[in-house]
C-alpha cells in the first residue's frame, strides 16, 4: 500500500478501530472499549489522532481567563486524553463520564479528574444537576454507531447559561450521514436560541485513515471538525 495510508497502520490497530465502529449493539461496543482500554493510547498515537489537542486548544482560546476555577465535564472521557490537553492549558476542575468501566479505570489512574462516573450517554441522563458546568466537551464520541445526536439537549442542560460546549465529529465517508444529522440538530438548537455558534473549524488531517475508502482524496488521512457553542444566557421569549 502507498505509504501514509491506513494500510501502513498495524493490522491490529485497524482491526480494533473497525470492530468498535462495526459493533451492532451497545453492550458489545462497551465490551470492546473495556478490552481496548489497555492499548487505546498507543493505538490513537499510531493513528495520529489530533482531536483532543484541537478541541482543548479551541476551548482554551474561547474561554475567558482565568481557567483554573472553571468546572468542566469531559463526556465520553475515555482514558483521559482530553483531560491531559485541558490540564496543560490551565484547567484544573475536571469531571469525566464514560460508558466503559475499563476506560474509566485508566482515566482514574491519571489523577487529572476530581470526579469520574459511569454513564452511557444516550441511554442514561448525565449525573449532574442542571446548569452545573462552565464547559462541556464531547470529543470523538459523536459519530456513526456511537453517541446519538439526540443527546445535545442533555449536554445543554448541565451547562451554565453563558457556558461553552466543545464538540467534535469526523468528516470521513462512513460518517457523512451522521454528520449531516448532527449539524441539522446543532442548527435547530441555534435557531431556537438555545445556544450560539462561535466556531466550526474543519480540519483536514484529523487522524490517519484505516482504509483507502475512508481516506480524504488519497491523503491517507480523514478530516474532522471542531464546534464551539455558547449557551444563551437567558431563554428567548417569543413575542405573543
Number of strands: 7
In angstroms, what is the radius of gyration?
Answer: 17 Å
CATH class: Alpha Beta
Structural class: alpha/beta
CATH superfamily: Vaccinia Virus protein VP39
Please describe the biggest sheet, giving its number of strands, its sense, and whether it closes into a barrel.
Answer: 7 strands, mixed
Low-confidence stretches: 1-6
CATH topology: Rossmann fold
Name the average pLDDT: 91
Helix and strand sequence: HHHHEHEHEEHEHEE
- Any idea what the CATH architecture is? 3-Layer(aba) Sandwich
Q: Count helical runs.
A: 8
Shape: globular
What's the helix and strand layout?
Blueprint: H1 11-22, H2 26-36, H3 40-46, H4 51-62, E1 71-75, H5 81-88, E2 93-98, H6 101-110, E3 115-118, E4 133-138, H7 152-157, E5 159-170, H8 176-191, E6 195-208, E7 221-231
Parallel strand pairs: 1-2, 1-4, 2-3, 4-5
Antiparallel strand pairs: 5-7, 6-7
Structure write-up:
It is a single chain. The chain has 240 residues and is α/β, with parallel strands linked by helices. It has a single domain, classed as Rossmann fold (3-Layer(aba) Sandwich). The chain has eight helices and seven strands. It has helices spanning 11-22, 26-36, 40-46, 51-62, 81-88, 101-110, 152-157, 176-191, and strands at residues 71-75, 93-98, 115-118, 133-138, 159-170, 195-208, 221-231. Strands 3-2-1-4-5-7-6 form a seven-stranded mixed beta sheet, sandwiched between helices. α5 links the parallel β1 and β2. α1 (11-22) packs antiparallel against α2. The radius of gyration is 17 Å and the shape is globular. The model is unreliable at 1-6 (pLDDT under 50).
